[in-house]
Structure formats: structure tokens, C-alpha cells
Amino acid sequence: MKILYCDVNIFVMRKKISVIFGVVATIIFLSGCSPQTINNNNPEAVLKNFDKDIENGDFKDAVKLLNPDTVSSRGEIWAERWVKLNTYNVKSITIKDISILGGTAHATVEITYKDGKTQKNAIDLIKNNGTWYISPSFSFKEGK
After folding, report:
1. Which CATH architecture has domain 43-134?
2. pTM above 0.70, yes or no
3. Which of 22, 33, 59, 141 is the most exposed place for a label (fewest CB within 10 A)?
């Protein structure tokens, strides 16, 4: 009859591996459940995300790209209406030029409307707590 010899170190090592695996799995799970990550590292990325959101009709996501100070002072409903009213006829936004000066940026864009017409427009962006946002001070309405 054999006596099984169990080394205590094996159990300790297994427990450590289980804990490490559990922590890694939790981190992966929580990062997968987090809200949409918005790339606001530079003005161009913000404008491209805004264009993508309005093309897809994701107005709530487009609102997240607006200056949060303006959105909080005027309200979420105002911000979503502003996005819808200013982009309802917009097919796409093409970035022509961006100039950055400290915590502000000025972008020249070309708006292509659903009827095929185009129009140049200016969009101002602001850096708020290290993150770039669109300053809702412009209008995309055709002929404006």
C-alpha cells in the first residue's frame, strides 16, 4: 500500500494561480462591460467619431463628444436636440484643416448633405480636463 505524499507548496502555488487567474478574468470581464470608450485624444479623432456617429444615427454617442460643461449647463435633452437639428440632413463630414492653439482647436470641414450639395464650415473644439470635445457653437444647416 502506497502512502500519498502531498507537498503543501503545491496547494499554495495552485491557490496563487487561481487567485491570479480570477483577478485577470475579472479585469477582462469588467473592461468588456464598460461603456463605449471614446477616443478623444486629439481633435481629428473627435471629429471622425462625430461623423461616424451622425452617419449611423447614434445621436446619444455624438452628444458624448460635445463639451460636457455645455451639455451639463443646458441639459442632455438640449444637447441631443442640437445634434439632431444640426445633422439631420448631413451625409458626411470631411476634415480639411485643423489648427491647434493650446487647449482650443479650429477645424475647417466640408459638409456633404444627403442631396449631394457641399458646404464648408468651421468647428471649434476645446480641451477639457485633457480630453478634446466639440464646442456646440456652429450650425450644419444647409445654407447657414
Report:
1. Roll (3.10)
2. no
3. 33
